[in-house]
Write a structure and sequence with these properties.
alpha/beta; 344 residues; 13 helices; 6-stranded parallel β-sheet
Amino acid sequence: MRRKYIINGRQLVGEQAGVQRYLHEVLRELDGIARPGEIRVAVPKGAEDLPAFRNLEYVPLGHFRGILWEQLSFAFYLFLHGMRGVNLCTAVPLLYPFGINSLHDVMLRRYRVMRSSLKLPYLLLLKLDYFIVAKFSERIITVSNESRNDICNFYGVPWDKVVLARSSWQHMERISPERPELGFELDDGKFYLALSSNRAQKNFVWVERVAERNPGSQFVIVGGGDFQQDVGRRESGGNVHYTGYLPDANIKYLYERCRAFLFPSVAEGFGMPPMEALSCGAKVVCSSSSCLPEIYGNYVYYINPYDYDVDLEALLSEKVWEPDKLLSRYSWRRTAETLYALIQ
């Protein structure tokens, strides 16, 4: 195969969450599909702790790090070698955006709450990124039908130009659970767990308000940032615990032992944490907003993300479907096969 495409591997460096997880897992599976040296992955020169691949070939380049590497080093390499980029983490080199690009969502266009958690320069850059991807991509990858509809409707992109390549959960099978050191006691099977980044659309205020109405229950919120100051901006009743960032092994331990996993987000492109939780045997209480009913169907318990008067025990006594059939629909391997076909 003529090497027309090269994959942007900038976000292989650092913590895995959201789109970074998507990149890691798709490349892991792609490594098992491609022939040796058939597909190349560009990374910043000197990058450390990169995943070890058998068949994918790394191309270290440039003298920058972070966004500057993507916008300058990677763009210049594509232009100089007459190649096309494959960008799987939404961000693209704006000076050379041609190729296969991903938009996991365009929620800024649909959900006003998204704008309140982003600083103005980043907000403007993200809007420009949406426009550039819609205008100049050969193909656009996205992860849900709602995102596909939004891309087509808001930006006038032809339907067949947007390809579904969904997120999945099999990475949880490789993780061995490990009890976290939290500084407080947990009662197995009795605490409620919430997990995500600290942004307004993740709606952790819902967790705090519901915790106030359930003083006899324990609530654990996991995620980066200072949740105690930034999420509720007020004192909780003492039954909400903020752990900060935890590694995957600790998160799996909590998934397996929680009373239920709470996901009150009001805006999602896919929503991977509920699927991770289901794969670990947890019950999931999920927002009825955005794409979540599309993804999770009758396999989770739904709440109105703006209604805090919720009887969680009564809700969890209702019947939902067993998750096996849902989990079988999603596969990192099938997502990688979709990408491989596009590259071919």
